[in-house]
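Below sits my pick:
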Amino acid sequence: MQQHTSINYSDKTKFYKELHSEAEGLAEKEWFVNLANFSALLKQHLPEINWVGFYLLHNNELLLSSFQGLPACTRIAIGKGVCGTAAKTLQTQLVADVDQFPGHIVCDAASKSEIVVPLIHNGKLLGVLDVDAPVLNRFDSEDQKGLQGLVQILISKTVWPDRFA
């Protein structure tokens, strides 16, 4: 069992370097273990967030997987909402104000901003990492770079199934 200490967020470059180091040490090869631990790691260390978790591609839709926060939407169509848009475009979605995002899906009314990073392995979409915040403009380009780096650690350290059944 690892001991977890708080990581100072005031210097985001240093914060994400330390977070990545902790994620590297925490990673296992099993996908379901990593999704659970990575969502807990982010919930523990990222300030001002109210939800963090993963949606996995299953039968051409995103299905809720490991998360930290209030109960969430269980299924999201590809192309719908922020998560579905990230899945369709294979591009990170950085949303300063979710109320201004066309077709935003409200799972937690407290969420005001959001970032969604697609999980891509060998050119194939596995799912998305979704992080919500109860404040506007919570995430910036440094968070985007840091979370994309975390997703790369997750992708590289994990043995992924051909499909999620």
The domain at 12-157 is CATH 3.30.450.40 (Beta-Lactamase). The chain has one domain: 12-157.
